[in-house]
Amino acid sequence: MNFTSEAIDKISEYFKTMNETPAEESDKPAKDWLKTHANNFTGFVNNNWLPKSETNVVKVLNPFTTDYYADVFLPSEEILENAVKSSSEGLIKWKDLSASERSDYLFKIAASIEKHADLFALVECITSGKTLHRIKTKDVPNLIQSFKYYASLACVQEQKIRSAEAGIVCVIAEEYNEPSLSVSWRISSVLAAGNVILLLVNAATCFAAFLLAELCQTSG
């Protein structure tokens, strides 16, 4: 499509004079959730939140307004070693569960995400740069469905899964621009098979991962 110079000038002027309008949904629920953690995150290990660290800190800001959201403290070498040790210890307990018992936990996590879907989508949106509509209609539903799918698979194919179990600690690195989508099917499939996960998240886009950790904790 070709535009005349006059049309191009009109389009340019139109964009220059456009007024910003408030978003239909506020980020207040996400900010309120961050406050429940005192706007500080260090990590989540052995079903517990780690205390504020003295290591390097990353200040997470709204990428558009630069409003402050939270401080994320980078883990020290000692914290990482403890996380690896905790994962190995947790593997023993998780692997000892039957596939149907693990299935129950995965269904509970899916239900918890579904219950808090709006908050999950908003927390993902404020740092990832993706639209809230895309996250609400694609990413969060995919995350929920992945947990339900592998929970069902673990239940109906318990014998096959038990005979094939390796029992390993899987290290997964989250992609900074696809925080929940990049790990959704990996987490649920790894857990369903009787393995455990050490999830490494990007400090600038870690809120959704920490909310997922919180929902896993409240799911039992």
TrEMBL record:
InterPro entries: Ald_DH/histidinol_DH, Ald_DH_N, Aldehyde_DH_dom. GO terms for biological process: polyamine catabolic process. Keywords: Membrane, NAD, Transmembrane, Transmembrane helix. One of its GO terms (molecular function) is aldehyde dehydrogenase (NAD+) activity. The chain crosses the membrane at residues 190-213. Residues 49-219 form the Aldehyde dehydrogenase domain. Pfam families: Aldedh. PANTHER family: 2-AMINOMUCONIC SEMIALDEHYDE DEHYDROGENASE. Belongs to the aldehyde dehydrogenase family. This is Aldehyde dehydrogenase family 16 member A1. It comes from Nephila pilipes (Giant wood spider). The gene is Aldh16a1.
